[in-house]
Amino acid sequence: MAVEALILSCGTGGGHNSAARAVKEELLRRGHNAVMLDPYTLDPTWKAAHVGSFYVFTAKYFPYAFGAAYNLGTWLSRLPITSPMYFANRKAARKLGEYLKENRYDVIAMTHFYPAEMVTFLRRKGYDLPPTVFIGTDYTCTPFTMETQCDKYVIPAEDLRDEYINQGAKSEQLLPYGIPVSRAFEPEEADKPELKRRLGLSPDKRCVIVAGGSMGAGNMKRLVKRLTVYGREKTDTQFVIICGTNKKLQKVLTDMTDSNDAFKIIGYTDRMSGYMAAADVFVTKPGGLSSTEAAVTGVPMIHMPSIPGCETRNLRYFESHGMSLSLKGRSIEDALDRLENGRECREMIRNQRRFISSSAGRICDLLEKIGNNDGKKVL
Questions:
Q1: Residue 201 and residue 295 in one domain
Q2: Same-domain pairing of 171 and 195
Q3: pLDDT value of residue 77
Q4: How far is CA 104 from CA 4, 9, 96, 100, 305, in A?
């Protein structure tokens, strides 16, 4: 029997939406019906883009203010108070409630804290809701997550269970399935030189992919300047710089590298899985989703300095599990030289295989089970 699933996300960076799309993609592949919705779009007096753009703007241009706000949230979440975001989302929650009265679903999944707060508001107001599943997309329990009232919480890893429990979760609510990524990132036996050729790259040169995330965040200009110097010495290396949606950064970097054939500067791409598969080294900010995509692909990874907050926790998790190198206290040149060592690269990929796998299939198994049983016996 086909499940009617609603997947809620919002535009605060690309990771949450990518995770939601991965779940939707898998549900559709199995013959179910899945709707992906940004709940802020339900209110014509709101502009959903404002929610995402304010988040992106703060993270990009005021990272330390963003980090201070995150740390304040972490501290406040330890107190017996309700998150300010719960109250801020009441209007959007009421609109979501109206939508759910007109559109019936068997199960609701959400990949962001804000929709989870909306669902919590509706539950407290007595709305008749189907089973609900929160899907974490960072390797930490973000502030106030556990004040929400979802039936199940899919968390990125078993060794994060205690952190969630310390913030109020019940062990039986937690499912350590991992972060969902598209099947496109799952490794296949491939001819890497041919993959490079298809992307317009030299098949014989080492390929370093640099991505700042969908926001193009990170001090990319300084990094690319150093890479141009490094590239003069390492003539067997080519660089692809992915700027995401930051068109201004794309133009600046294009101008910086205009006469350098070793560099390819691009903006947002829907071929990210292809670039990762072709990469010999992937340099990225420590976003939960992009890091998981790289680990699922199985590519040696270097993490740029993080935006203070959940990215700091992601970086710590990956580096402590031997799945990436951090540029904290290490130069990009040293990190790239270290990953010329085949043994070190193989060990890093082994660790990625050990600790990370795409969870989209297991999440859909859960949604099928609770959606077809109206939540009975499984919640």
A1: yes
A2: no
A3: 62
A4: 8, 18, 12, 6, 44
Integer CA distances (angstroms), 341 to 281, 299, 323, in order: 12, 13, 15
The low-confidence residues of the chain, meaning pLDDT below 70, are 13, 46-81, 213-218, 374-379
Do both 151 and 245 map to the same domain? no
- Domain containing 97 — which CATH number? 3.40.50.2000
Placement of tokens 């189907």 in the chain: 130
Greatest CA separation for the chain: 66
DSSP state of 374: T
For residue 365, what are the contacts with CB-CB under 8 A and spacing of at least 6?
A: none
CB 306 within 8 A of CB 31: no
Report the chain's C-alpha Rg in angstroms.
Answer: 21
> Going by DSSP bridges, is the β-strand pair 281-284/263-266 parallel, antiparallel, or unpaired?
unpaired
Spatial contact of 124 and 275, defined as CB atoms under 8 Å apart: no
For the residues of 188-248, what is the DSSP string, one character each?
----HHHHHHHTT--TTSEEEEEE-TTTT-S-HHHHHHHHHHHHHH-TTEEEEEE-TT-HH
Beta strands in the chain (DSSP E): 4-8, 33-37, 107-110, 132-135, 152-154, 174-175, 206-211, 237-242, 263-266, 281-284, 301-303, 325-326
In this prediction, residue 70 carries a pLDDT of 57
Q: pTM (2 decimals)?
A: 0.89
Q: List, for residues 315-371, the tens digit of each pLDDT value.
A: 999 999 999 999 988 999 999 999 999 999 999 999 999 999 889 999 999 999 999
Q: Facing residues of 206 across strands?
A: 237
202: which residues sit within 8 A by CB, 6+ positions away? Answer: 196, 238
User: Buried b vs exposed e over 64-89: b needs ≥16 C-beta within 10 Å?
Assistant: eebbeebeebbeebeeeeebebbeeb
Please answer whether residues 31 and 2 qualify as being in contact, where contact means their C-beta atoms are separated by less than 8 angstroms. Answer: yes
- Residue 337 CA to residue 233 CA, distance in Å, equals 12
* Alpha-carbon gap, residue 228 to 62, rounded angstroms: 27
pLDDT of residue 335: 97
| CA gap 130, 105 in Å, rounded | 7
| pLDDT tens-digit map of 210-258 | 997 554 555 888 899 999 999 999 999 999 999 988 888 999 999 999 9
Residue 328, domain extent = 187-355
